[in-house]
């Protein structure tokens, strides 16, 4: 007999997910036809990669704009911030801060400013 799927999970049997609010720069919002912030549902203990994968799955137009389509590496001139800290150079499997998971902070994607 197969156990019933957990109705609160992302997939049957998964622990309930958590919502993460992602704030994108206007250029990416326009590309994906998004108004304001985006809320993605991820596994209970998500990583930076989990949040970005959920965002790209929800808005396929963003695939390849934040991370390289082939390698999954962060694109040059794109930065990620969590709780006011630049997490762009953290490993993709770095956990998301509890404040973001609790909804007190957001996960922010920014286009870096350069020039001279």
Task: Describe the secondary structure blueprint for this structure.
Layout: E1 18-23, H1 26-31, E2 38-42, H2 48-58, E3 78-82, E4 85-86, H3 98-101, E5 107-111
Parallel strand pairs: 1-5
Antiparallel strand pairs: 1-2, 3-4, 3-5
User: How many E strands?
Assistant: 5
Backbone structural class: alpha+beta
Mass-distribution shape: globular
Main sheet strand line-up: 2-1-5-3-4
**How would a crystallographer describe the biggest sheet?**
5 strands, mixed
Number of helices: 3
* Strand-residue proportion: 15-25%
Distance between the termini: 66 Å
Mean pLDDT: 87
How would you name the oligomeric state of the polypeptide chains in this document?
A: single chain
Query: Which range best describes the helical content: under 10%, 10-25%, 25-40%, 40-55%, 55-70% or over 70%?
Result: 10-25%
Contiguous runs where pLDDT drops below 50 for at least 5 residues? 1-11
Q: Sketch the topology as an H/E string, one letter per element.
A: EHEHEEHE
Rounded to an integer, what's the Rg over CA atoms?
Answer: 15 Å
How would you describe what is shown here?
With 116 residues, the chain is an alpha+beta fold. It has a domain of 65 residues. It has three helices and five strands; from the N terminus they run βαβαββαβ.
What are the defining features of this structure?
3 helices; globular; disordered N terminus; alpha+beta; single chain
Short description:
Helix content is 18%, strand content 20%. The protein is an alpha+beta fold. It has helices at residues 26-31, 48-58, 98-101; strands at 18-23, 38-42, 78-82, 85-86, 107-111.
